[in-house]
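In response to reviewer comment 3 from the previous cycle, which asked for concrete evidence that the modeling workflow produces usable outputs, we include below a single protein chain processed end to end. The sequence was submitted unchanged, and the resulting C-alpha cells are shown without manual editing.
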Amino acid sequence: MIKYKILVLTDHNGHSAQNSIYAILNEMLGHEKCEGIDIASRGIIENKAFFENRDASNIFGNSIDQAFKYSQDGSYYKSGLSNLHLEDYDIVFMRLPRPIGDDWLEWLGEVAKDKVFINNPHGIIKTSNKKYLLNFPDLCPDIQLCNSKEDVLKMSKKYPIVLKPLKEYGGKGIVRIVDKTVDIGDREIDLEIYLESVNEELTTDGFLAMKYLKNVSQGDKRILVVGGQIMASSLRLPAEGSWLCNVAQGGKSVKADVTNEEIKIVKGLTPELIKEGVLIFGADTLEDDYGKRILSEVNTLSVGGFSQAQEQSGKPIIKMTIDKIFEYADEYK
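The workflow returned the following C-alpha cells.
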C-alpha cells in the first residue's frame, strides 16, 4: 500500500475553533494511507521568506499529532519548529485563505510541480477568478465581463445587475445597480460617481456583471463537492432588509437539499475543474426568476464548512473527503 507524506499550508491567524482544518487533519492522521502530516502557517514570522519572498528553502512548521487543536494564541504553530523541505512530501494540501497573490501561486505550482496538490495552484489562479464563470453561460444567469463604463451602462439599461470585482472574496466589493443608483450595502450612490471611483480597476482588471435575480431572498446555496461527489449543501439567507446572502455580511446558514438542476450544475463543472487540478470546490447557486437554481459562483481556494456540514447532515463527510483525497493521489501516481 502506498502511504503519503503531506504538507499543509495554512494561515492560523484566520482560524476559529470551528475551522474545518482541525477535524480534517485529525481524521487524516489516522488514515491507513497517511504516513505523516506537517503544517506550515503563513501567520508566523519564520515563514515570511517562503510566503512573501518565494524562498522554498525557508519553510518552517511542525508535525501534526493528537494534540493538534485550535488555540487562540496559535501556540501549536509557533513551538517546536523544524525547517521543512518540499522534496520530502507527496501531497501539498492547500488550506490558505485570501488574500493570496497569483504570482505566489504560480511560483509554488512550478517549484513543487511534481507534487499532488489539493488544489493545484495553477488551477486555483484560473478557476477562482470570477470571469471563469464565462465558460459556463448555460449554467449561469446572463453574465458579461465589463472593462469600461460603457459596458456597465449598456448592461444596466437592460435590467438591474450585480457587479463583482474579479478577485475579491467574502462578498467584498459586490454592488447592485438599479437604473442609475448603486446599492453598496450600507448606502446608495449615483452610478456615474461609483463608476468614476472604480474606473482604474474596471479598465485594468474588469468586473463581472450578472443579472440581478429577484428571488435572491430565497438564499444563496453553497454546495460542497469533492472529486465530483456532492458532500453537503447549505442555504445562506440574507439578513433582514439585505440582498447579500454572505454570512460574513450578516446572513445566516441552514441545511438544505440539492435540486436536480444543481446536480446537473455539479456534473457540468466537475470534469472541467478536475482538468485544472481542482479536487475540492464549492458551487454557489441562486434561484432564478422562474424558481430554478442556477450557478452564481465557484470557490476553489480553501473551501470550508466541512465540520458544520458533517454536524448538520449526520454523514461522515470528513472521512469521505479524506478518502477522496487519497484516491485522487493514487490516480495521480
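DSSP finds eleven helices and 17 strands in the chain. We consider this sufficient to address the reviewer's concern, and the full set will be provided in the supplementary archive.
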